[in-house]
Amino acid sequence: MVGRLRLGATLVRKAFERLEHEGFVTIGPLGTRIRIPSSRDIADQYEIRAALEAFVLRSLAGRLTPAQVARLRANLDAQKANRGARDGERGVALDAEFHLLFCEFFGNQEVLRVMNQLREKIHRVISQVYALNPDRMADSYPEHCAIADAVIRGDTDLAATRIEEHLEAGKQILLSPRR
Q: What is the model's pLDDT at position 96?
């Protein structure tokens, strides 16, 4: 691979070290393996997201521009249309867009960077939520609507509570014993 792409071994090693640092791979004496998040990793990531997203929603509540509300509603309309299709890949993409829209609207580039990093780390996990419980996609839609409505209306406490409940539901599906 290094030869075909004409990449130096140092560059490839640095890339793998960065992937290890970010928690995507484990490098050991027997080689490099994709890192599967543990239950503790999953819980930790959901807790970080809940704290960060609740902060963002509290900050945005009642302050969205008409253009931002329109973008949020367009995402919700796409989620509603996808409910019947049960397209998991599209559902994950729309879910990511929904959550990241608020971070984008907030305007803090570090918050957006951290949220993007968390989403990348947990992407496989979120895909598993939909695989383990296909109804979760349909359940997420009214939860997303309730979150958006609270933010648009300016109800800071309700917006924070709704996002915390929403993320807790996803976390519980992943961490509960398989049925």
A: 93
